[in-house]
Backbone:
């Protein structure tokens, strides 16, 4: 991949990373905000409200967990940019394909800049699950 393309993807990854970090922080604050300014106390005497509060908390924590997983993928992608291996399909390389044949299409990287595999290998991986 050309240096200017790598720079473009590095910028894209950094922006996505910053946005997700902000989302994670906000979700964590909202999930664990007790009775702060403008919020009613999270403890309720009504069973339906307690169930709703528990569901909201669980949902927020699941989003945080998902976003943290994506943040880890982004960090790995940024390391690959620095190492010069960004944009190469891990599964293709594991199969012994040459780097020229293991490139992830740029359209896929623009849609999912932290993609680790080409579309074909990702489909195979998903079908195994």
Residues:
């Amino acid at each position: 991949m050309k240096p200017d393309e790598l720079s473009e993807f590095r910028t894209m990854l950094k922006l996505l990373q910053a946005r997700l970090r902000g989302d994670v922080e906000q979700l964590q604050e909202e999930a664990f905000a007790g009775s702060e300014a403008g919020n009613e106390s999270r403890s309720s005497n009504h069973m339906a409200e307690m169930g709703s509060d528990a569901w909201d908390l669980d949902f927020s924590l699941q989003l945080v967990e998902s976003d943290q997983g994506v943040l880890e993928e982004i960090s790995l992608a940024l390391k690959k940019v620095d190492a010069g291996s960004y944009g190469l399909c891990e599964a293709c390389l594991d199969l012994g394909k040459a780097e020229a044949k293991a490139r992830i299409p740029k359209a896929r990287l623009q849609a999912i800049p932290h993609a680790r595999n080409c579309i074909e290998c990702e489909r195979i991986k998903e079908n195994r699950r």
Remarks:
- The chain has two domains: 1-84, 87-129.
- The helical segments are 3-32, 47-83, 90-94, 106-111, 119-128.
- Confidence is low (pLDDT under 50) at residues 35-39.
- The radius of gyration is 20 Å.
